[in-house]
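Complex record, two chains
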Amino acid sequence: MSEVVKSWTTRRDAKAARLTAAQSLLNGKFAKTQDARAVLETLIKPGDKVVLEGDNQKQASFLSQTLAQVDAAKVHDLHMIMSSISRPEHLDIFELGIANKMDFSFAGPQSTRVSQMIADGTMQVGDIHTYLELYARLYVDLIPNVVLVAADKVDHDGNLYTGNNTEETPVIVESAAFKDGIVIVQANEVVDQVPRVDIPGGWVDVVIPADEPYQLEPLFTRDPQNITELQVLMGMMAIRGIYEKHNVQSVNHGVGFNTAAIELLLPTYGEQLGLKGKIVPNWEVNPTPTLIPAIESGWIQSIHSFGGEVGMEQYIAARPDIFFVGADGSMRSNRAFGQMAGQYALDMFVGSTLQIDQFGNSSTVTEGRLSGFGGAPNMGSNPTGRRHSTPAWQSLRPDDDPLGKGQKLVVQMVETFGANKKPVFVDHLDAEKVQNEAKLQNVPIMIYSEDTTHIVTEEGIAYLYKTDSMAERQAAIEAIAGVTPVGLRSNAKQLADLRARGIVALPEDLGVKRSAAKRSLLAAQNMDDLISWSKGLYNPPAKFRSWS
Amino acid sequence: MMQTLWVFPGQGSQQAGLLATVNPAILARVTALTGVTLSDTTVGYQDPVQIQLSILSRQLDQLAQCQQLGWQPQAVAGHSLGVFAAAVAAGSLTVDTAIQLVATRAQAMRSAYPTGYGMGVVVGLTRTELAPLVASVHTEATPVYLSNQNTPLQTTLSGALPAIQQVLTLALAQGAQHAKLLHVPSPSHSPLMAAVAQQLTARLADCDVQRPRCSYLANWNGRRTLTADGVRYDLANNLRYPVYWATMMAVAEELGTQVAMEFAPGTVFTKLSQAQQPNVRTIALAQQSIDDADFLLTKWKEVL
C-alpha cells in the first residue's frame, strides 16, 4: 500500500509562491507607487476572491483604480467582495472582464449601472447582504485570497494607522492575514512612527504608497438649514410618543433630515419637556455634526461610531469622554463592532425609507436602481436571541405570553409623499419588480414588517407592535398614510377606534401643537451655528461652507 | 481630474438666426456634401432637413471652437439628432460623415410620415403609471407608444395624433400635471421609425465609425458604450427606441460627471440637469459664449 502524503499547507504554499514571484517588485513589504499595476498582476490570480475595501465613506481608491488598469489577459474572472459599490471603476472592472462576480451590501452611488450590468449579464451577483452577514462570510465561505485596503499612515515595519476612519479595515485584514490570504495596503503616507498601531505590521504583506490620499465622503453631514418644519413636527412627535414614552436609553439614527431634526430638538424641545438626563444618553452613530448641540448641552454620555466624519476630527479629539479616542487623540471607529452594537445593544433604531408597503415592509430599492442597503437592515432588525433587558425593550413585551420577551424598537420616519411627489405608502414595493428583473432569490426589502415597531408620518404615529393581526397592522398604517392610495382606505370610525386603543396617536394625542413646530425650535439653524456650538472645533468640508 | 459631459440636444429649440455666428466654411461644406443650402429662416425651419442640418452645423461649429481651445469631454450624450455631433465629439465620426448621415436621416424622416403623426408629452406620471393607459388606446390602425424618458416624471408619447390625444386626456384624468401635444411632425423614437432605422443602418454600413475616445452614452438603452459597434448601433437605431435620457444622465453621474456642458440650441437639458443632478455644474453654450465656457472650465479645473 503506497502512502499518499497529503499537504496541509496548500494555501500557505500558494501565498509564498505568489510573493516570491513579486520579489523583484518589492523592497521588504514596500512596492513603488508606479509598480502598483505589476504588483496586482503578479499577486492576484484568475478566479480569486478579492475584497476591495470601500464602504459608504472610505474608499481604497488608488487600489481600485489600479485594479481597473490590470491586463485582463492576466487577471480575470475575479469574485469581488465589497461592502459598498461606490466608484465608477468598481463596475468598470466588470466591463473589462477583470471580474465577473460580486457579493456586496450597498450600491447606492452606482445603483443604475449595477442594475444594467445584472440585466446584461456583465455581473453575476452572489447575494446582497447586510454588513454583518458580509463580514461574517469572510470567515466562513467567502474567505478571500487577496484583500486590498487603505491606511492613513504606515511605518517601515508595515504597522498601519487607520485613525478616525478605521471602519472595516480590521475585519477585512483579519480574514486574510490568518488564512494565508495576501494583504495589500495603499498608504497615504510613509512615516518613521505611526501615531498608534491600528493593524500590526505582521498582518500586512505589501504596502504601496498611493499617489493621492484615499477618497473620503462626508456622508453623514446634514446642513440644519435644509430641515423642514414638517420634519420638526415629526421630530417632536417622535420625542414625546416614542423616546419619552418608552424611556429609550440607547439609539442609532440613520442618515437623514428627520433624525437630524430630532438631534437638534433635544436641547430645546427635549429640555422644555424636562427629559434631559432621562433619555438617550448612549449612542451608536457616526459623529454627525448635528449631534454637537446635544453633546455640548450635556444630553449625551457616550458615542461609538462605525466610521469617522470629515471635519469632526478636532472636535472629537477634544471630547474623549464622549467618543472612543486613542491615546494619540484620534478616534477609532469600527464598523463591524458598530453594527454588532446596533443590533444587540441598542434600544432603538430610527431611520427612513423611500417606500413602505401596505403591510409595513420598507425598501429603498426603486425601479432601475438596485441600491442595496447600508446599515439599516442590521440596525432595523430585532435580534430574537437577545437576553439582556432594558425598560424600552421590556415595554414592547406582549402581556399575554408568560415566556414572552421584549423587542427592539425599530422606527421608520417618513413623510407620506416623497421628494418626487409620489406616495411613499404603496400597495406593492418597486423592490418586488426589481427582484424579477435582477433574478434575485429574495425581494430586496430593507426592513421587514415584522421588525418594524413604529411608523411616524406628519399625520401621526402607528404603534405597530400593539397590533395583533395583519389586518389591524394594515389599518394602523392606513390611518397615518395621509392621502396616499393606502391612506385613503382609512376612515374616521376606524381612526377613532385605533386612537382609543392607543394603536395610533395624532399630534394632539401626544400634546404636540402643530403650530409650535417651527424651525426656530432647532438648536442650530445652519452650519455656522454648529461651528459656534463646537467652540470652533468643527471644521465643515468645503461643500458645506456657504461662502465657497 | 475634472469629469466633463458634453450634451448635444436634438430638434425643438431651433429658430431663425441659429446660424448667424457659424463659420461659413461649415455651411459651405453642408451644401457641397448634401446639395442643401441652409436658409436659417422661420419658413426654412418648417422643414426637418433644414432643421436637422442647421442644428448639426451649429453644434459642429461650437465643437470645433472648444476643441481648438484644447477641451475634450470625458463623456458625451446626444439627444436624438444630437447623437451625431456627440459621435463627432467622441472621435467616432468625421464631420463629413456626420453631415451626410444627418441629411439621410432627415430626408427619410420627412418622407416617412408626411401628416397625421407626431408626439406628445406627459408630466407628473411615471412610465409605469402611463404604460397601461397607452396599452388601452394603442391599436394597429392608430398606434401610440411610450417614447422618450426625459425625467422619471416626464415621458413623451409617439404615434398617430388622435391616439396620442386620447392618452393625454386619460393621463390628465389620472392626475398628470401637464399633458400636451409637441410641435414634432413625426412619431420619433418609436417602432414606427423602423424603416428609417433600416435606411440609416444600410447607410452606416459604408461609413467608418471609430472607437469612441470617451464614454458614449447610448440613447436606445441608456448604457455607456466604449465600442465603435455600440456607437454605430445607436446612430442607426435610436429613432426606433425611446431615448432613455434620465437613465443616461444617472449613468453619467455614476461615472463621475462633475460638469455638464450643453451645446446650442436651447437650454432644456441644462435645466433638467440642474433639477435632477444638483451636484453637477452646468454650462449652456446657447447662452454663454465659448470664452465664458473656457473661463469657467479653466477655473473649475483647479478645484475639481
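Note: The two ends of chain B are 7 Å apart (CA to CA).
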